[in-house]
Amino acid sequence: MAEAEAAERRVLVAVDESEESMHALSWCLKNIISDKFSDTLLLLYVKPPRAVSTALDGTGTRCYTEAFLFSSDVMLAIEKYGNEVADCVMEKAKKLCSELADVKVETRIENGDARDVICQMADKLGADLLVMGSHGYGLIKRAFLGSVSNHCAQNAKCPVMIVKKPKSTSNSH
Amino acid sequence: MAEAEAAERRVLVAVDESEESMHALSWCLKNIISDKFSDTLLLLYVKPPRAVSTALDGTGTRCYTEAFLFSSDVMLAIEKYGNEVADCVMEKAKKLCSELADVKVETRIENGDARDVICQMADKLGADLLVMGSHGYGLIKRAFLGSVSNHCAQNAKCPVMIVKKPKSTSNSH
Question: Pairing between strand A129-133 and A104-111?
Fold first, then answer.
């Protein structure tokens, strides 16, 4: 699968709400996607597991609250919010793709722990390459679970490209 | 630096004695190096620090012995052996480059802890991308120090590409 001298490559990019993930996508479009191959770009967004609320923010101070503390109305609102975030991220990502490269794009939105889901989907979708930003969790969760990119670099079967957003550039994508 | 839409990219590939590192180089030559850019491929081999003997083997059962236990003759022999290994790895890597791509190649051999030296050299040499295999230490040392690729993915300033050798292919480069 990794021996992609063949005509077609499937490049999986894990996207999320972060600037860094859009930077990783942008870097991939400029540096990896090539006319030499018939590339297909697979955009993957992973929503957190339903029992965990991450509705509050994405800056490392997320509140993790068990589902049973909420009424079903609140849960529905959170679910709706989660779907809107997912759609918004995907729209932004697709726009970037159309601006930066002439490439076939497919999108997938999945539920679960990003670390596991990304590795599973890389396998399931037959990715020749996985591209992602270097974080993907807030500081607190990362301290307990380790970074998503580290996990994927170790566990994904295909090559993994980790793209950090340079600190000095604020308008790099 | 990572915004490599410009005409020239500097791609640093960390090579060592492992099959996996040659696979990573091969993958890079086939998938990253492109006529679209004036790429320069920088091959980096890092010899272990001089005070540590890694002369015995590279399978994860390396013996770490303080330099002062050896006579200077033995140390010279170990040093010579280390240089021969470095030259041999570089020759193999350069051969692969000439076989797989038409790309300008530069080589560097450095001394020190691979984890630090690779990150430092990526910075110093102005790398737009760092490519490496997914291990780089034997099992025992990795348990204490963590993997080289994890460290570099977290600490290198440029994007990092980690290429695992597929278990199923024995002749993939």
Answer: unpaired
Give B3→chain A minimum CA distance, Å.
7
Q: Which residue in chain A has the smallest CA separation from B153?
A: A162
- Chains A, B: CB contacts within 8 A come to 92
Contact B163 A163 (CB under 8 A): no
**Winning range, highest mean pLDDT, from A127-136, B5-14, B110-119, B143-152:** B110-119
- Domain for residue B1, yes or no? no
Residue numbers of the domain that contains B135: 8-163
Q: What is the CATH number of the domain that holds B105?
A: 3.40.50.620
pLDDT of residue B156: 92
Give the closest-approach CA distance of A68 to chain B in angstroms: 37
On whether the CB atoms of residues A130 and A159 are closer than 8 A, the answer is: yes
Q: Which of A1, A3, A148 to mutate to test the interface with B (most CBs of B within 10 A)?
A: A3
| E-state strands within chain B | 8-15, 38-47, 104-111, 129-133, 160-163
pLDDT tens sequence across A28-81: 999 999 888 889 999 999 998 865 544 444 444 444 454 456 678 888 888 888
Residue B55 contacts residue B78 (beta carbons within 8 Å): yes
pLDDT tens-digit series, residues B41-77: 999 999 988 655 444 444 444 444 544 566 788 888 8
Q: Please, is B102 exposed, middle or buried when counting C-beta atoms within 10 Å of its C-beta (0-12, 13-18, 19+)?
A: exposed
Q: Is residue A72 part of a domain?
A: no
The ipTM estimated for the assembled molecules is: 0.77
Of A2, A154, A161, the CB nearest to B159: A161
Band (pLDDT 50/70/90 cuts) for residue B138 is low
Tell whether A64 is covered by a domain: no
Domain count, chain B: 1
Distance from CA of B70 to the nearest CA of A (A): 37
Contact A158 B150 (CB under 8 A): no
User: Hey, is the C-beta of B154 within 8 angstroms of any chain A C-beta?
Assistant: yes
Asked if residue A3 is part of any domain, the answer here is: no
Q: Rounded distance, CA B89 to CA A166, Å?
A: 32
